[in-house]
Amino acid sequence: MNDKNSQKIVDFISNWARKHSIWVLAYGTGCGAIEIPPTMTSRYDAERLGVRGAATPRQADVLLITGYLTTKSLKRVIRVYEQMQDPKYVIGFGSCTINGGMYYDSYNTINALDRYIPVDVYINGCMPRPEAVLSGFGKLQQLIAEGKATGATKYKENLEWYRANQKKVIPNWVMPEYNW
Amino acid sequence: MKEIKANIINRIKANFSDAKEKNDFAYNRLDFTVQKETIPSILFYLKDEMGFIHLSHISCVDWIEEGEFELVFILWSPEEKIKVFVKTRIDRENPVMDNIDMIWRQANTYERELREMYGIQFTGLVAPDEFILEDWQGPPPMRRDFDTEAYADETFFNRPGREDAQDVREAITKRSGEDVPDFAKKYSR
Amino acid sequence: MQKNTQDKMREKATTLYFGPQHPGITGNMMIRLKVEGDTIVKATTEVGYLHRGFEKLQEKRNWLQSFTVLCRFCVPEPDPVEESYARAVELLEGREVPERAKYIRVMMLELARMGSYMLWYGGQNAALGLYTMGQWSVGDRNYILDLFEELTGGRVYHMYIWPGGVRRDLPEGFTDKVLRTMDYFEKRLKDYDDLMFSSSIFQKRTKGVAVIPKEKAVEWGVVGPVLRGSGIHSDIRIDDPYEVYDKLDFIVPTEEGGDIWSRALVRRQEVRQSIRIIRQVIDKMPKGEYYNQIPNPQKWALPKGDAYARTEAVRGEVGMYIVSDGSIHPRRTHFRGAAYVHGITLLENLLVGENIADVSAIMNSLGTCPPEIER
User: Fold this and answer.
1) Helices (H), chain C
2) Nearest CB neighbour to C51, from listed B62, B133, B144
3) Which of A156, C181, C340, C375 shows its CA 20 to 30 Å from the CA of C73?
4) Domain extents for chain C?
């Protein structure tokens, strides 16, 4: 049996299954979370794409960072992200995750999310419309089908760099080791 | 309205000798400035004897040029339908104030925030140390000598801007070939 | 020292974190619960996950730039915050607002009130396990957001009510669209009654839970529909009227009882009163100017002094205190939301003695919204 070809077929089927059932963790981290209920309910129904809510990190596939993150919230987000199982993705929602947005000079919010956890797709806007959210999910589905949504492996390989950035911002570091 | 205001002023001045009033507002508002030691007794009097049962707000202003903090208590009376502002000044180097959460229970939350954001010590306040900020090692952030932009530049990584630093109007003109409309021409960059 | 039975019971208590990541919590906050079996013994609210330091940011922006920042104070309902700021600046400067602008402001506030009540319908029922109501009401809220988008350009954050009036005049045919939307909502409210208020599950789970007694309500600082659910007739639109509320005809519903069921009945009546107010506003709206032009914003300085303006938002009393020292930057702007009192001292005392299963329903009925608490 030719391993390379059968690996390709297995990858194709598993990516097809993964992209049609993306479960979003129930965590509204910032002000962008007000456009998530309209996306999930009757007019802009996201469940026809397979997107539904999940209650705990162990059951979720994608972590939707809706807006700005304070340092207090970043510590919990890192802990939740490390509890999620592979394959996992992160979507950065709103312009505050890209360059700080309108809170660029605040003493409590971080400016660039990419330095602390790996991000796969950015959706810009303040705040993004539900149609923009659905197109962001479509882009994530495309990346999964091509096999390019590799934020989780990037995190595992560059763990020391991410940890150095995180510890610079969070002074009281009492967190479990990440070794899975 | 004028009789109600005059009545309140007379009663307060009869009982508290250091209260100075300010009565030149066209709407239903009255100001009193007192020394900081009188604050608990004047608030008790306003709440129990004069019907100002609703505490609307407690705030603090930093007058750094004069070296003082100014505390403001805003009360509302549903019977007479009038607001009373009680103001006092405390020293900025060593700010100490009496605790009033035995009068209104919700004053506990306001005092916790002022303690964290300005560093004002309320004697007798029973509350956990941290309220909003976690593991904060700098000075109290709402004081005017704390520069938030410098702190943010130094602690957080800023994504650099575009290297070509394009103007939006020029970028659209180059891409689609249409003219900049008139209403967009009057704003400089 | 001998330990009595209370101490021994408390030693068996475990600590649960009703934490920032939770499907039943209204926003991003944490409640630390000490439970003994299924009953709560002590509750502590912890906030701070959403603190941006708004008041510090506004010291570097001038009076008009800080208006663009502050609609994010209260995320589900940004219009009363803009209204409080605009009225406080007008009180401080003594600026007159044209009549037409006042009527338009009242219409915007009441539309925002209805939109926020639709979100409340979804949240309160999802806490009890009735998920259909959220699908209907949040879906219907999109019709109100369509109206906002046509008028102001944004679905959620409008930045429309500013000092001096409103930013744009109403376009052609807008009032007809508003009236058609109100007709649609009146039909839907009957469906909501059949699904939610006649359901015996909803009634059994909400009667007698988290009672706020009438004598203590004002002293504990309770405001808004929570206060009216305990039997006290108090509403800023009637006691301390602003804009044109003294010319409009509406009632303020009150219910005795003080539990979650009474508060739900109060909110049910207020949606109907909002529709009534909007119809009267459209009927009586005069023609005229919509804006009293402010001078060049880069050089606009307010006189020295301070002002405080309050508005009746969905959750209760929302107040904005501003201080000016004669320059183009604000000296101090301090915002107070209704959830500041409801979310911390009131919630911690109400939760003692309740079940864990009711925590989410109690939070939704008090209207705890964390962005208001910590700004």
Assistant:
1) 5-11, 54-57, 63-69, 79-93, 99-128, 132-152, 174-192, 200-206, 214-217, 225-228, 236-239, 260-284, 339-341, 347-350, 359-366, 370-374
2) B133
3) C181
4) 5-374
